[in-house]
Every structure is written in structure tokens, then in C-alpha cells.
Amino acid sequence: MASSFNQMFFLLIVILLNISITTKAQDTHFLYQVCSKYKFTANNTTYQNDIRTLFSSLSSKATHNVEFYNNTVTRKTPFDTVYGLYMCRGDIPSGLCRQCVGNATQRLTNNTECSHSVAAVMWYDECMVRYSNTSFFSRVTVAPGYPGYVLASPTNMSDQQSFNRLLYQTLNETADEAAKAPIDKKKFATKEAAISIFQNLYCLAQCTPDLSPKDCRRCLNDLINSDLPSCCAGKQGGRVVYPNCHIRFEIYPFYRKLLQSTAPAPAPHSNNSG
């Protein structure tokens, strides 16, 4: 009897742990948003409705296990046309990608700060959603207009000079790997390097697939050589995020392992709707 009870108790613990892990796996983490200072008038319900139509199409596409998607909701009046896309981080599972896109579009819809903004971009740790009244597809977006987001660990490495050499070398190798994919293919890479026999460095780089390899590498190069030195060099971790590309490094594993045999993500596809 005691043995049977112990088995049932163990099974209950396993079930509860699985529920906890599953719930935790679906958590998304908001990072930052940029809302355009340019607003459409409150009575321009056409543009507002087009944004909602766009968000609906993005959320719907994310349910089909697509990691990147762009779409255009067109009108006869160019001012009412809205362009948008989402991109999920290259290592996250499809369910978390879907959850993140849904959370981001909902947050943008209900966000008072972005209310009536003609353009906005929202970053989560797991995805990015962006829209605008002008086309930005296949173009590298740099400041001003869309400033990026940086976040650095408050803790410094003990040997910063040696660490920085390894950091820039590894990040550039990661960027090279991410950028070599042809246009409309997944541009994502991770790389590890040994800091010591006890500690590793973990790096991640990603671009939106609509960029050419050259533009992707240029975008990542700006982050590595222009933004990262002022915010994160010598730190135990840091990230720089822009609309077209992002990088991150830590001294602990923060990304999921990917099998090299994994099939490539479907190519981006644009639809028009009026």
C-alpha cells in the first residue's frame, strides 16, 4: 500500500513539474519600445483599422510556425497604407514565437504611449514586431528615428582587456556566420568560446531575413563596433538591439542549442490586402 502511495505521489510531483516547466517555457519578456513622435489624427479610423488588420495577419501567420513574416495593408491613399513585420529569435520554439507575437501586437494595440503613432517597433527577448506608414522592408534602419536598445550587466569582468579581445573576435565570427545566409533565409547564429577552463562566453547574432548578406553584416558591424564599446565592453553580459539586427553575449548559456540538420525556416512572404 505504501509503495503504491509513493508511486502515486511521485507521479503527481512529475506532473506538477511538467506543468511548471511548460508554463515557464511560454513566458515572454518585454524589453523596449520606440513609438514615432509623428501621429495620425484621432479621426483617421482607416489607418487605425489597417494597423489592426496588419496585427491580425502577423498573429495569424505566427500560428503556422513561421519565424519571420512581413505584410502590407494597402489603400488607394498612400498615407493609409501600413507596412509591418515580425521576427522571432532564431532559437526559440514555435509556441513561444506565437505567444510573443501575440503579446507584442496586443501590447501595441493597447499601448497609450504608441496610441496614434504612425510607426513603432517593440522588442521582446523572444521576438520583435514593427510597423510603419512607409516601407522599410530590405532596408537597414539606423538612428535617428529608430534608436536602438542596449542593456549591460552591472558586473565587470576581472581581466577586461583579455576578455574584450575574445568578445570582439567571437562576436565578429558569430556575425559572419549569421550574415552569410542568402536573402530571404534565416540569418541567425550562436557561438561559444572558452574564457578559461572554468568559464565560457556565449554569443548570439541575428538579422531580419529580408536583408542581403552585405546589409546584415553592416548592421551587425555597427552594433559591435559603434554601440557595444560604449555600453557593454568588459561587462559580464550585454545586448544591443535594433530593428534589423541584434547581438547579445553572456558568460552563461542563454540560448537553446540548435541542430545543424534543422530544416531552414520558410522564406518570408508578403501579401497585399485592401
From TrEMBL:
Domain named Gnk2-homologous is located at: 28-136, 145-254
Q: Name a Pfam family for this protein.
A: Stress-antifung
InterPro entries in UniProt = GNK2, GNK2_sf
Show the CDD domains listed in the entry.
Gnk2-like
Print the keywords alphabetically: Repeat, Signal
Q: Which residues form the signal peptide?
A: 1-25
Record protein name field: Gnk2-homologous domain-containing protein
Q: Identify the species of origin.
A: Stylosanthes scabra
Q: Taxonomic lineage per UniProt?
A: Eukaryota, Viridiplantae, Streptophyta, Embryophyta, Tracheophyta
